[in-house]
From TrEMBL:
The keyword Kinase does not apply. It comes from the Bacteria. The active site is at C50. Belongs to the glutathione peroxidase family. It holds the Pfam family GSHPx. InterPro entries: Glutathione_peroxidase (IPR000889), GPX_AS (IPR029759), Thioredoxin-like_sf (IPR036249). Keywords: Oxidoreductase, Peroxidase. GO terms for molecular function: peroxidase activity. PROSITE patterns: GLUTATHIONE_PEROXID_1, GLUTATHIONE_PEROXID_3. This is Glutathione peroxidase.
Amino acid sequence: MFKLMLLSAFFSVAFGNIYDFKVDALDGGKIDFSKYKGKKIMVVNTASMCGNTPQYAELEKLAKKYKNKLVIIGFPANNFGGQEPGTNAEIKAFCTKEYAVTFPMAAKISVKGADIHPLYQYLLAESKKKQFEPEEVTWNFQKYLLDEKGELVAVFKPRTSPTSPEVIAAIEK
């Protein structure tokens, strides 16, 4: 418990809020979260060879429908069952060809374990502070929703459809 409190305190100090993050993009550029102030942000860990992979299509629908109030950012990760083995270039080609993904995609990262990306350390610390379930990333396509002020307001389990009534209600709130 002390370790968890220490981790939470560290990331609250190191990263004051979500807008402090700049992450590598799948195409080699940068994704600067500060440019999304005033919009809701949905962060999703993704994988190309998962039973949940068809959620890319639903995420793309959301991104287009709510483009003025929501940005979706995908984070490819190979933490679960080796379901994202590709390189950044292979992942980009897959997402473009198979699902016509246009929302921002980050470079491949780790969402758990010793090499967890700082953004996910931050999201997990915020999730624990707010006592959201699940407390850890449990599988591919877990969704973190932040409001227009950058506050974490919901965590959706991997099998929760991005277009489910509960997700839509949280976006429209």
